[in-house]
Specification:
Three copies of one chain form a homotrimer. The first copy, chain A, is α+β, with helices and mostly antiparallel strands. Helices cover 19% and strands 30% of the residues of chain A. The first copy, chain A, folds into two domains: 125 residues, Rieske [2Fe-2S] iron-sulphur domain (Rieske Iron-sulfur Protein); 183 residues, Naphthalene 1,2-dioxygenase Alpha Subunit, Chain A, domain 1 (Alpha-Beta Complex). In chain A, strands 12-18-17-16-15-14-13 form a seven-stranded antiparallel beta sheet. Chain A is globular and about 80 Å long.
């Protein structure tokens, strides 16, 4: 199927993008814009989620304004029916269905309480390209989650999520503190697409969230490992140990406070990005009050990022030729931009929008 | 007079466009944007409606922000006075009036409770170009009316109004029903500028509005004839007879339920269109409660169209290169687009905006 | 320092522009957009006002979202510190500060209850370029003031402020009256940059504000002298004397009613302009009730201008090629536009945006 009609921007397409939380996708028809394409999401009677281009092939009416008929969807304008494979099965008033009467079906994958959509070549869709999360659903790990829309582009959000240094200044009420101000950050590649920037801040007071949920007796050594897996996944591994503890994986597993915060980022369009997130914590796993407080605190924390990133985007739009002044803590940012650039070149070698799902970097996996 | 300054888009200009309902035009100064031009409407002491370019020749202040002085209008900024012919009669502070100090006067025509404005060459304005409505004001015919602004372009609204097939899916609560789903539509030219698409749906249950106002004893034969007269007029002739009745004009005249719904469409700009409408019904002519209910039901029905057409316009703007997939019920649509294209070519043979009112197709009439 | 990154429009830059009232600038961080540049305003502990480009050199975060640390400002994103000279003094996480890590410091000048910012070459900033106001702060002169944002460009506002003729039509409730309708206006240059348009309207009833605050026994001679000093300053000298009085400076000084109304205009961007104003009156100098009434009446008067100027701007944008029809009262307008054009040519001889603060007309002074 040809999808050159979608007019998308230079988004990276060969990836699983989070489209909705599992509980948003049900018997109804959910409309969402992803990579500047209108996408219809619903759940088959079997429970399987379906994602179709939300634009009737006839006159472009959103199918999401129509209705379901079993597992099929009926266009609100002239009653054309589409099966869950995107193929039109019936055109009222005529005996045959035109070959062009179909809409793109995006491969879907439901995991971690989210419905992911593959925005590139369906033949390349493979569940192994989704990040694997060992702790998800495991006993002893509590879960909180959220969803926001940022008026900021994906690149700027990724900058923020590969950058432990900003927490001192942006998040002093939750996950940052002055103690980290001058501790340098190391950037390192993990496999082809994942960059990690991290540091240990040692022998310092615990940050506010640790003080709140696992108050230590004295100073702590704390770690921050910020990972971004291109093009759209981030996870931040954060925890603290009594100062002087060994910094081994075993000690980190047994730490009194460890939170791994995942973010799945999906461009809505060139200006806006969906921010789906959840946190796994290694304490109070089944305590609903703690979960509620985590939801609220992480929402406030991401709002602090959002306000800044939206202001930065306004300034970038206002002064498009201005070059940033790089500082030491940008090591991860600069490297990540180069990796994304290489991916984009691989997807779109001639900077043309023609048949973008045909071109793909080697995804490994 | 030269009006090349108006910056209009590729609108068809040689036509009467509805500008306002008669009761909107009175002693006050009414501002309305038509074909992306600012138009001032008011009524002379003689009762005649006047339409002037709502932009002082001096510094472009809207005359509608000024005041009347008898039949003249005084600019709010420097007190320049304009007569109802658009010619400036006085410039305060100087003895003479510059020859350029005039604004376009649009020819007007008041009929059917509406004030129409001729947007093209005034020399071509002729009342015979307006559609002639035999039933209007006749005993036995009731009248309901409405006005809405659609965030949709004229072309897409005309598509909707030459298309009986959509009623099954868009208007099942008022004027459509499942029974019509598979009945084919015939398109036919009536004179140079009018296309009619129609069908009979026979031996079927009556649609909701017939059930409400003229409930039949059994199944009915119903007709739908959708007419568009370029560039901006539509009327839908709808009625039902006991199943098996002859389908003759005489039988249709005597039908227990017949409604002719007129729509006069006037682009505000490239994105928005005024939708002036009225319905003539052949029953309960003087029953105010029925009129009120008709007003409400037709408003709801047109809102159903509006929601769809606005969504379609968003999709067209998002994916400008996408081609629609044509289906059988588009016979009228495709033909109407070709007719409009020919008209536009006749008005603007070199695709230039210079002096558009000089170029005109043969309007007949 | 190079400021070619700011992307400004063709604004005239070599001037003092009002940025804020004195009481808006204090211990906090005030963000304001001037000439399409983000400007941060705050007051040093010494009381001196400071204006910096409100965009961190690193990643463009607005410094106004950060915090003060003594006289320094800390970026909200990564804690970079800037001194009041715009030079970065500290980058957390690294020992040295990159040479490019600085933001423009705009020269400031505080006078007349306003903070002015020099938007051009700092080497040219000179307090003598600001208008000198003899009556400000003098005994016997009362003061009222206001601030508004007009959705209108500077040029159109200056047209309005060099034009005594409009008061008859726009301000009949405060400072205009029919009596002035046909009295011609004289335009005259005062020095290189100041144009004055004025007239005497003799032996006529007083205008409403004079009737309100200094009701005369009989008819009056009144003067209106409208001055614009390029690029951004206006003052209107208005007063009235008993009819038949000599029109000498001494008589005007001793008039029962004289008001000099200053306006300091600062483009926010190409579409919006800050309008800082104050009025000096030669009566009831210390009467707070009169001051409150002046604030309200002048606000209403400027709102009358604002509504018109915003409508005019919409029409100019709608029909960009349309030429105004000039009338006699435009003598000042046309001359002022030519003066502004010459200034712009002097600042930007090659119509390039490169290093605009390097180019400057001879400012005299």
């Amino acid at each position: 199927m040809n999808r050159t009609e979608t007019g998308q921007g230079p988004f990276l397409r060969q990836a699983w993008y989070a489209a909705a939380s599992s509980d948003e996708v049900g018997a109804g028809l959910l409309a969402r814009t992803l990579l500047n394409e209108p996408v219809l999401l619903y759940r088959l009677e079997s429970g399987e989620p379906v994602a179709l281009l939300d634009r009737c092939a006839h006159r472009f009416a959103p199918l999401s304004l129509g209705r379901r008929c079993g597992d099929e969807v009926v266009c609100p304008y002239h009653g054309m029916r589409y099966g869950p494979d995107g193929v039109c099965t019936q055109v009222p008033g005529q005996a045959t269905v035109p070959a062009r009467a179909r809409v793109h079906r995006y491969p879907t994958l439901e995991r971690y309480g989210l419905v992911f959509v593959w925005m590139g070549d369906p033949a390349r869709a493979d569940a192994r390209h989704l990040v694997s999360i060992a702790q998800y659903g495991q006993a002893g790990w509590g879960l909180s989650r959220g969803h926001a829309l940022f008026h900021a582009c994906l690149d700027n959000i990724l900058d923020n999520l590969i950058d432990p240094a900003h927490t001192t200044y942006v998040h002093p009420r939750t996950i940052g503190s002055d103690a980290g101000a001058d501790v340098a950050v190391q950037a390192e590649l993990e496999g082809a697409d994942t960059l990690v920037c991290g540091r240990w801040v040692n022998d310092a007071p615990a940050v506010p969230m640790v003080q709140r949920f696992a108050p230590p007796d004295g100073p702590v050594d704390r770690w921050q490992f910020y990972r971004v897996r291109l093009p759209c996944t981030s996870w931040v591994d954060f925890g603290s140990l009594p100062a002087g503890s060994p910094h081994t994986p075993e000690a980190m597993d047994a730490a009194p406070y460890r939170v791994i915060s995942y973010a799945f980022l999906t461009p809505q369009d060139a200006e806006h990005t969906h921010y789906f997130s959840f946190q796994l914590r290694n304490f109070a796993a089944d305590d609903g009050a703690v979960t509620a407080e985590f939801n609220a605190l992480y929402r406030a924390t991401f709002d602090e990022d959002r306000v800044l990133l939206e202001a930065i985007q306004r300034e970038e739009r206002r002064a498009p030729g201005t070059a940033p002044t790089r500082i030491a803590s940008d090591a991860g940012v600069a490297r990540l931009r180069r990796m994304a650039h290489a991916w984009r070149e691989a997807e779109q070698p001639h900077a043309t929008a023609a048949a973008p799902h045909q071109r793909t970097p080697d995804l490994g996996g």
